[in-house]
Amino acid sequence: MRQSTYLVPTLRDVPSDADIASHRLMLRAGLIRQSAAGVYSFLPIGTKVLRNIEAIVREEMDAKGAQELLMPAIQPAELWQESGRWEAYGSELMRIKDRHNRDFALGPTHEEVVTALLKADVKSYKKLPMNVYQIQAKYRDERRPRFGVLRSREFLMKDAYTFDTSFEGLDKQYEAMYDAYTKIFQRCGLDFRAVVADSGAMGGKDTHEFMVLSDVGEDTIAYSDESDFAANIEIAPVNVQYERADEEQQPLQTVDTPNVKTIEEVASYLQTSEDQLIKSLLFIVDERPVLVLVRGDHEVNDVKVKHVTDGQSVELATEEETKRYIGTTPGFVGPIGVSEEVKVLADHAVEVLVNAVCGANETDKHHKNVNPERDFSGVQYDDLRTIQEGDPSPDGKGTIQFREGIEVGHVFKLGTRYSEALGATFLDENGSDKPMVMGSYGIGVSRTLAAIIEQHHDDQGIIWPASVAPFDVHLICVQTKDDEQRQLAESLYSQLQGAGLDVLLDDRKERPGVKFNDADLLGLPIRITVGKKASEGIVELKVRKSGEMDEIASDECIEVIQERLAHL
Amino acid sequence: MRQSTYLVPTLRDVPSDADIASHRLMLRAGLIRQSAAGVYSFLPIGTKVLRNIEAIVREEMDAKGAQELLMPAIQPAELWQESGRWEAYGSELMRIKDRHNRDFALGPTHEEVVTALLKADVKSYKKLPMNVYQIQAKYRDERRPRFGVLRSREFLMKDAYTFDTSFEGLDKQYEAMYDAYTKIFQRCGLDFRAVVADSGAMGGKDTHEFMVLSDVGEDTIAYSDESDFAANIEIAPVNVQYERADEEQQPLQTVDTPNVKTIEEVASYLQTSEDQLIKSLLFIVDERPVLVLVRGDHEVNDVKVKHVTDGQSVELATEEETKRYIGTTPGFVGPIGVSEEVKVLADHAVEVLVNAVCGANETDKHHKNVNPERDFSGVQYDDLRTIQEGDPSPDGKGTIQFREGIEVGHVFKLGTRYSEALGATFLDENGSDKPMVMGSYGIGVSRTLAAIIEQHHDDQGIIWPASVAPFDVHLICVQTKDDEQRQLAESLYSQLQGAGLDVLLDDRKERPGVKFNDADLLGLPIRITVGKKASEGIVELKVRKSGEMDEIASDECIEVIQERLAHL
């Protein structure tokens, strides 16, 4: 491709609204342009990388026997009503009415459509297991689209769905997809972790997120410094054997704590440490009050509260609700003497406290010398807090560290959630009707592109892994007015293409500095510069990743390039 | 791919709602399933054919230096308002509101988005010419979706846009795209014509439709039986030198024609022929009355009326409007004595009539012995009728014939319609600002698939051209319970795949008749049957297209298949 008429508009300045590296570089290197908030066009060089990632995805999916299909983006509302997600999905679901005023969803995912499809055409165990996938634009009306294509409203996704006769079959397919995803992200040159995650609104159990480790990201990953344990902190279990302090229990006391509300203020006012305090937070779980206790230096994990209570909706109580159920204002809430209407849950760390402090359910008052085993009644203890850096790893090996992560893939065991709701059954070997056992698997293709840049760049620009690079070689003609340089560049352009290399020829009438800066910005693996030594048949080869430069004979170019590419 | 777990649900019965061959066969052979009216899923075998067509499209587009990009399907309403199409496109444009109540269109085409894109990033003549394209789902809320994917509401399209500094440049790019389209449809095995067409709502001049000749279709093509002239009958010019009858003019007469209204009734009642009658139809063109006269055996072409009057909207007048402007009811309308407010246009064929008949603008009365050159005043003569079978070809060579056509491609010269509306200008060599000169080019990818089937099938099923076939070979194991047959089939399956052939292995436990019928229905170019002679190493080869069958040694399979495929 000739750069002179190629739509790759590089920008010298950093766009002001882009605050992460991949977003800045995708704009500066002319990969994307914004069309509306969270809606982007991929320019040719961005599109080439998307196609390369898609090809890797297809190869690894096909290798597992998955079948590519193509479902429509506009989906009848009836299917979403049957599954119950028409309401549940909320305002992230883009909705559309056709000319007959019928409701449709713009698909954020395709569980309903694919289940209806297989329900109609797969009736017998003989056709199962089956794994179908597609690569397609998806829609999610994000409240705050940001980070460029990392969180956009229209994005490219590979979604796959498996159908089995049994949960054992599902386990196997889940393993196969887990393996395919591992290979895909490895081939994309990504440093990632498969982390245990919450299944959220998808309605399944057993789920892993494939997280690209990064300095930015919307998820925090807790991982062990000594094992391969990794989990989203939303879900990471805490596995600590707390020990009871060897101290005598003192009589319970009520003390004045005028206008002293936060954990920090209480600890300081009562001259004790935060880990001697009990934090009491009132939640409303499916319209019922639930008081949750954790140690003062810990944080309540509402995903765990949701699981322990088997609740659908978990919200922190308002001040008004706190008054109604507890009789005091937040800041002075505690578990002693609350009405039976309020369920009390406490984290394991609370159970072993001796002579601790908690709110007294009266404005400006706290209890001192609180001993849960003596003073609390009807409390259910469980793992309710968020894991912290420095905690022992739940698998017993090593210590927990945190990293930010970009979610590029997600594998779910759905079970029969959708097949039961939509009636997708099959006849088993004994002729009885059973719901299909399903799995769901997604890869954010456009997001993977951004994640690759997030991990592969320097101050000068992008550094593409050869596996997904938009071109193999950036061939630069320093002086297009110089006949010898131009002729050698043109001749190399033909030769390299003839050898199967994908080449971007910088044939622009620009200053050499502009060309070299653009080459670093675009980040193709190999740069070949045809300059002053063209008359001697000598060109310069630069490896973008290492910065290593060599002068080589132009007639050795192909060999040397192929050899270098094999290691990039 | 193993058919036992492949999602290719063949149907024995003809679906009742499918009334054309391609729609029936796409349902029966398991290529598509309907998800809502005009909204389809492509199952794996349909998706494979789409991908094959896409690959051909990409190769031919890339060969012309076109650059692939990917624009979003959701498009800001502001862009459509700037171009004036937000209103003009009417209810076929699917509209969507986001969570902030902002309006978006679901793109039926991308002139606005691509123009805005190039406006922002291409400022100089040095970057031009440029040709960008994408392959993407498009949306059109058809009033009557029908014929399966031939007229659906979500469909796959390749759309391309060219940008030039001059109209001469546009002409060159138009030629290049015309040539690419010709190659694409040839490679898809289609019998088609590039026909001159009306540019409709696209707002350009010079446009060709690529029409696949067919027995069904929504367009009628007029073509010459002796030259390559072909045009949509909407637009085909009539180039006939009418001769005046050698007859004496008689005095104008008014006769009673009680309740005699239609051309047929009048001709019969007055014992004359239809070609001696003048048909007078009142139209409302942009709110002004226009009376159009054609010969009784001809039809008014309203596209021509639109062009001749330079009108935006051309509608046949209602009975009420006819009364208001002419003073009589339709059936008795004529040009003699109409008020000056009514513009009168007549087709060339009317001008030469001698002693003809027309309505007398009075209920139950007609004029006889009408001689336009004597009796009419203020009439403008032009080409206003639709071409007919038997007319001489407008290029002077041969006679016009009609065929139905399926539009699979369309090339337009847009000129500066969009660049001026959206302000997409460039600096020319002299530093002055000029609007880019644009072209727009579309291929219906999913529609092309249906058109291929429409031209390549028989009573048994589809007959895929090898270039787009979902698999090269259908390998059938007649008795899967027979060890020798199964082993030979499995061994051939590996060998053929190893030789780069794409093979569908029928490993189902079905009766041989079912397998053979499905093979004919699916229509893969070559069928290899492993049956009773497996023990002798002999298999049967059948060419789907010709029906030709041979027994061959299994170890010669690869060679023979490759040789046959080269001719299919």
Automatic annotation (TrEMBL), chains A, B:
Reaction(s) this enzyme catalyzes, per UniProt: tRNA(Pro) + L-proline + ATP = L-prolyl-tRNA(Pro) + AMP + diphosphate
Tell me, what's a Pfam family for it? Answer: tRNA-synt_2b
Q: Tell me which species this is from.
A: Texcoconibacillus texcoconensis
Note what the entry says on domains. Consists of three domains: the N-terminal catalytic domain, the editing domain and the C-terminal anticodon-binding domain.
- The name under which this protein is listed is Proline--tRNA ligase
**Where in the cell?**
Cytoplasm
Superkingdom to which the source organism belongs:
Bacteria
Q: Which UniProt keywords apply?
A: Aminoacyl-tRNA synthetase, ATP-binding, Cytoplasm, Ligase, Nucleotide-binding, Protein biosynthesis
Family recorded in the similarity comment: Belongs to the class-II aminoacyl-tRNA synthetase family. ProS type 1 subfamily.
Question: Residue ranges of the Aminoacyl-transfer RNA synthetases class-II family profile domain?
Answer: 38-465
Q: Which GO terms describe its biological process?
A: prolyl-tRNA aminoacylation
Q: Which PROSITE patterns did the record assign?
A: AA_TRNA_LIGASE_II
GO MF annotation list = aminoacyl-tRNA deacylase activity; ATP binding; catalytic activity, acting on a protein; proline-tRNA ligase activity; transferase activity
Functional description taken from the UniProt entry: Catalyzes the attachment of proline to tRNA(Pro) in a two-step reaction: proline is first activated by ATP to form Pro-AMP and then transferred to the acceptor end of tRNA(Pro). As ProRS can inadvertently accommodate and process non-cognate amino acids such as alanine and cysteine, to avoid such errors it has two additional distinct editing activities against alanine. One activity is designated as 'pretransfer' editing and involves the tRNA(Pro)-independent hydrolysis of activated Ala-AMP.
What are its E.C. numbers?
6.1.1.15
